[in-house]
Amino acid sequence: MRRIIAAGLAIALPLAAAAAETTTAYDLLFRNGTLDALDRDRALVYDRTVSNALNGTAADRDTGRVVLDIDQPADGPETVDMTFRKDGKFRGLGSFRASVGNPMIMYFYETTVRDMAESAGGSPFYIRNRIKDALTVPQEVRTATADFDGTTIDVQRVTLKPFADDPNRDAMQGFGDLEMTVTMSDAIPGWYLSLEAEVPGASGPVYSSTLRFAGLEDAE
């Protein structure tokens, strides 16, 4: 999984200059400074829920909690340490510079790439490149409200459909209809309220991956 998140940098970093000129959606999705105000004694917690009709082991393997702790070394930059927790077990997901922002966005995109490649076949490089292409296209940024922790908050929402016009979509086992939706708000520590990937089906989602901010806990 460390390799997966590192690969996510291939989505984020090369697009920064070009995307900033074409769409505000990129700036929202990969917003800088989203961890600056976070209390360093607190950790961000996200619940991940997965269902996958094409991969019977995915739900059990990938449903769990993702926790982000900010480490402050005596010398050197602050880092974000990501771990996946399930049934009392922990798995490291990597460490990333806190100054870049919340790496949860990279985890979301790269796990979607991996899940699609595993389930539908095809090259993860091709899938990742199509998502990169979608990020450079101007997107509608929708405003709405959402319930969080017993209150109503203002949110912004962006939805990508990276394979809507792909010439190979008929061979993608339904993933040609993949929708990736990110909901963000200044009222949420770390910026992201939810990150959702879904492939609709006739009798329910063929694939669904939801990451939702669950709150803060004491950092370890």
Beta-strand fraction estimate: 35-45%
What is the H/E order? Answer: HHHEHEEEHHEEEEE
The average pLDDT is: 88
Number of strands: 9
Strand order of the main beta sheet, please? 4-3-2-1-9-8-7-6-5
The residue fraction in helices comes out at 25-40%
Radius of gyration: 17 Å
Uncertain ranges: 13-23
Structural class by secondary-structure content: alpha+beta
Number of helices: 6
Give me a quick take on this structure.
With 220 residues, this protein is of the alpha+beta class. Helices cover 26% and strands 36% of the residues.
Structure description:
This protein is of the alpha+beta class and 220 residues long. Helix content is 26%, strand content 36%. It contains 6 helices and 9 strands. Strands 4-3-2-1-9-8-7-6-5 form a 9-stranded antiparallel beta sheet. Strand 2 (64-71) and strand 3 form a beta hairpin. The longest helix is centred in the middle third of the chain and has 17 residues, at 104-120. It is globular and about 50 Å long. Residues 13-23 have low confidence and may be disordered.
